[in-house]
Amino acid sequence: MKETLCFLLLLLLAPSALAQEPVITWGPSIERDVAELQNLHIIGISGTDFYTVHQADGQATLERYDATNQRLWATALLPRTADGQPAEFHDVLLLEGKLQLLSTHRKNGVTTVYAQEITSTGNYRPTIRSVTSARTNGTLSVSISDDKNDVLIVLTDRPQQKLTASLFNASLSPRWTQTFSMSGVFRQSVVLTDGSSFILTESNDSAPITAAYHLYSLNARSGSIRDTPLGHQNYNFTQAMMAASGTDLVVAGLYASGAGTAEQQPEPSGNFFYRFSGDKNKRNLTSIIPFNQQFIRNYKSETNDFDRSKRLRNLELKEVETAGQGGTYVIGEVWFQENGNGQRLYNSHDLIITRLKEDGFLDYNTSIAKSQSGTSGNRFLYSFLSSLQSNNLFIVYQNMMRGEATAPKQGSLAQAATLTTILPDGTQQTTPLQQKPDSAESIQIRPAVSFPVSKREFIVLGSNSGSYRFGRLKF
Predict the structure, then answer these.
(1) Which distant-in-sequence residues (6+ apart) come within 8 Å of 447 by Cβ?
(2) pLDDT truncated to tens, each residue of the chain (475 aa)?
(3) Which class for 98: exposed (0-12), middle (13-18), buried (19 or more C-beta within 10 A)?
(4) Residue 451: CB partners within 8 Å, gap ≥ 6?
């Protein structure tokens, strides 16, 4: 009886264990150097298919791929205004299963945003709609809520310090529009699932450090605006980013000690954290969280730099992820440019990760040692992807020998496509990613171009000499 129970238990556990084995299944290759493609990204999934957009030589292209990562068709994107004039391509949105080509046109000091539907077979619908407009010569930014029901379109004019924000439903029908003066430079916009909208701007150097950033909150129904300055009299907030968590908004980032701003690139001392809750039963939070000093000492002692603080000075805030009751993760990446052998090298190296508790206090700091370098200015070729599930943080990256811009040799864990799992206590488990078919071992994963199918499945980009392809990563 005991043996039978053990056998049944093993049968129950086996599928779960097998599901943890990380593997990438690649589709067929496309014979083109991926370095020639700018702004390549995956815009969304429809059933088992997915869509991508890229630009090359000034031409934008929309592509559809099937469940086996095989390209089905490609359509050149030729945006037009409602009266047939050429427009400037912005992006393609996938809303309510429909593809919307978004573009802008400037005339007489007014910028107009247009939308035109593209069918699932790559053909244009004849109707071109004027979605919104503003008296601005600025730039366009679009944010979509997690449930895909709300779209926030922002037009900014930096010289005039003006901003026009418009909220739409998934059919791009307008709800409200607000135009107001902004402080500093537009950095990010976020719209929550209840329609509450937020815009983050970074103040100019002349602004007081108590207002290093400004958070503009726009009411979901009316668009009424509240301006909240973010900063601290004793700390210099150097980088900031927003993240949505249901009806809560989190703003987190890096700060440097000292009120002065004399250093051009100060070494960060820790993280700051704000939580603005849409739940009246939850209070808002503000925290200053220094890095764990033992972690910093250990990190610097293991880093072979001439200036041991150089790597931290190059820390770039990349992601802020919320985990509900599990708190917040703040992920920074050491990124810098340098000249080598007559070429400019782009380096994406170690990750520095802070996990904050729900109350805003520090849980742990940890780091992932990696090295990614190349001569291409397309930064999407390197970097990482992350996924958060049950308070486990999954990080996928392609590790390379420092300074190497060609395909890494397989067989060494330090030089392979890698999955690192950070457990709730901060400990790490690192596993090489298996690739299928076996002949695909020379393919480098480019995880910065990815799209989540689920918490444990991603569509990812891969490339090797002269070609690229898409694959399904499961872990």
Answers:
(1) 383, 384, 385, 396, 397, 398, 458, 460, 461
(2) 555 544 444 444 444 433 457 899 999 999 998 888 999 999 999 999 999 999 999 999 999 999 999 999 999 999 999 999 999 999 999 999 999 999 999 999 899 999 999 999 999 999 999 999 998 777 899 999 999 999 999 999 888 889 999 999 999 999 999 999 999 999 999 999 999 999 999 999 899 999 999 999 999 999 999 999 999 999 999 999 999 988 899 999 999 997 554 467 889 999 999 999 888 778 889 999 999 999 999 998 877 676 666 789 999 999 999 986 778 999 999 988 888 677 788 888 899 999 999 989 999 999 999 888 777 655 555 689 999 988 899 999 987 644 333 333 433 434 578 999 999 999 999 998 888 876 656 788 888 899 999 988 999 999 888 899 999 999 8
(3) middle
(4) 42, 44, 45, 50, 458, 459
Q: Is the dihedral of CA 271, 277, 281, 283 positive or negative?
A: positive
Query: Which regions of 182-299 does DSSP assign to beta strands (E)?
Result: 185-191, 197-202, 213-218, 225-230, 235-245, 248-257, 270-277, 285-290
Q: Which residue's structure tokens are 């898409």? A: 470
- Residue with the two structure tokens 């994963």: 445
Buried b (16+ CB within 10 A) or exposed e, 55-89: eeeeebebbbbeeebeeeeebebebbbeeeeebeb
What number of other Cβ atoms are within 10 A of residue 182's Cβ?
21
Q: Side chain identity at 343, as an amino acid letter?
A: Q
CA distances from 109 to 49, 73, 106, 137, 180 (A): 40, 38, 7, 6, 17
Name 378's bridge partners. Answer: none
User: Does residue 413 sit in helix, strand or coil?
Assistant: helix
DSSP β-bridge partners for residue 330: 320, 354
Closest CA to 398 of 409, 384, 387: 384
Specify which residues 353 forms β-bridges with: 331, 366
Alpha-helical (H) ranges within 277-331 are 293-301, 310-313
With a CB cutoff of 8 Å and minimum separation 6, the contacts of 277 are: 247, 248, 283, 284
Residue 58 CB partners (closer than 8 Å, separation 6+): none
Residue 295 sits at the vertex; the CA angle it makes with 253 and 431, to the nearest 5 degrees, is 90
The owner of tokens 């400004």 is: 214
Contact call for residues 266 and 256 (beta carbons, < 8 A): yes
pTM of the model: 0.90
What are the distances in angstroms from CA 279 to CA 245, 246, 247, 275, 282? 11, 10, 7, 11, 5
Q: Whose CA is closest to 461, among 39, 172, 58, 95?
A: 39
